[in-house]
Amino acid sequence: MNWPHLPVHVTLTDAIDIVATSILVYYLLLLIRGTRAVQIMLGLFALVVILAVSNLLHLLVLATVMQYLLLGTAVTLPIIFQPELRRGLEQLGRGRLFVRDRRAEDATVAEQIRVIAQAGFTLATMRTGALIVLEGQTGLREYVESGTMLDARLSLDLLLAIFNKTSPLHDGAVIVRDLIVEGAACFLPLSDNTIAVDRHVGTRHRAAVGLTEQTDAVIVVVSEETGLVSVARAGRLSVPIDDEERLRRVLAACVRPTRRSAKADGSPLAKLFARPLDQLRTRAHSPQEQFRT
Ligand SMILES: Nc1ncnc2c1ncn2[C@@H]1O[C@H](COP(=O)(O)OP(=O)(O)OP(=O)(O)O)[C@@H](O)[C@H]1O
């Protein structure tokens, strides 16, 4: 068979070039997987497709507008992706972009979950409201900056001190990443969800739902009014969680979902997050049932 148009001189350098570029693209995709960057990339891709089509059909005005739009977007990209870029460069600097120490990561996640679950139920017993955000892949820098930046080692005592009603930092959310409390008294975006804005559900819970609608963060919410502990993720609020051990398991499943629990329907996690706000409201009105599932 004759292949007249195929390049015949593929050198070793070309092969290395292709493999290296593929690996780089793969790790860049891993870095943005599950973050808002994916939606932004899809939006950009749509703009490029429109530009290509308008060029193809010689739609001069549309093509010119799209070119300027893409140019403007390209200039703003470093600003939009500032948290992701920062994290990527940090990981590269620590040599962790390509080699990840899974065991150390798992230990950090487990310890973080243990402390947060313990704090959640201690605060619930004291009827002290709290919002504790576990940062995921999406950078939360803008939210940390809305409060007081701490950069302090996570501990039970620190969380109890922050949410103590006499503390100047108790109003707002605490944001935690890798066993570090990045900030306290942080302001989170309120949800526009029509169920969440129901007048029976207050702003603390709406703020938890709001942030998880926009990011992959997982949030523990302790209600001051009812002493109930719930978890918010992916724009949904769980039913109240009974005990510390269960909260630990729920958080572990939310932070590191297995393929089975990540499935939308049928998994225990999906059931926990089904029709959550109704149940929360019902429980808020029947205190004797608070700690029953
Ligand atoms: N956007 C927000 N970001 C962070 N924290 C918030 C936000 N809005 C409210 N809060 C916190 O929630 C508290 C008010 O809670 P509110 O009573 O309105 O809500 P709730 O969901 O009914 O909570 P609770 O059951 O604890 O009473 C505020 O004092 C503040 O600490």
From TrEMBL:
Its main location: membrane. InterPro entries: C-di-AMP_synthase (IPR014046), CdaA (IPR034701), CdaA_N (IPR045585), DisA (IPR050338), DNA_integrity_DisA_N_sf (IPR036888), DNA_integrity_scan_DisA_N (IPR003390). Gene3D superfamilies: DNA integrity scanning protein, DisA, N-terminal domain. It is found in: Cell membrane. Keywords: ATP-binding, Cell membrane, Membrane, Nucleotide-binding, Nucleotidyltransferase, Transferase, Transmembrane, Transmembrane helix. One of its GO terms (cellular component) is plasma membrane. It catalyses: 2 ATP = 3',3'-c-di-AMP + 2 diphosphate. One of its GO terms (biological process) is cAMP biosynthetic process. It is a single-pass membrane protein. The chain crosses the membrane at residues 6-30. Its EC number is 2.7.7.85. Residues 82-243 form the DAC domain. GO terms for molecular function: adenylate cyclase activity; ATP binding; diadenylate cyclase activity. Belongs to the adenylate cyclase family. DacA/CdaA subfamily. NCBIfam families: diadenylate cyclase CdaA. PANTHER family: DIADENYLATE CYCLASE (PTHR34185). Catalyzes the condensation of 2 ATP molecules into cyclic di-AMP (c-di-AMP), a second messenger used to regulate differing processes in different bacteria. HAMAP family: DacA (MF_01499). Probably a homodimer. This is Diadenylate cyclase. It comes from Vulcanimicrobium alpinum.
